[in-house]
Hints:
It contains seven helices and no strands. It has 157 residues and is mainly α. The longest helix has 20 residues, at 2-21. The N and C termini lie far apart (77 Å). Mean pLDDT is 88; it is low at 152-157.
Amino acid sequence: xxxxxxxxxxxxxxxxxxxxxxxxxxxxxxxxxxxxxxxxxxxxxxxxxxxxxxxxxxxxxxxxxxxxxxxxxxxxxxxxxxxxxxxxxxxxxxxxxxxxxxxxxxxxxxxxxxxxxxxxxxxxxxxxxxxxxxxxxxxxxxxxxxxxxxxxxxxxx
Length: 157
């Protein structure tokens, strides 16, 4: 009988903690920053695949599902979006894109989009054909509209 009381207290404590963490504001401001510039896409199909599989984390056009209003999910999604925008942002093409040179490799090896994202966004999964189309299209896009390299403005020597 004592274990039931302990279990009940544990469950009530966890529910109380779940309610309390809802008051932590991080991850709930779903105001997307403005779009400042996009690359000159090689064709609409390249952009369409990127929108479906990449833009939620790598653009300022994030669509925020209902669960992003519930902590701790809101914290995890906000962290992923902040990190994605920091390393590559298709809608801030007028600023440095520090990891753009790694883009083709992570798409080819299948680590982008990540599996954790695909659990809630199965439509973002890329077939082998879509993966190849996206890589080829991004290569063509980067030839015409290359990302700015580095962390900042080049220094004079």
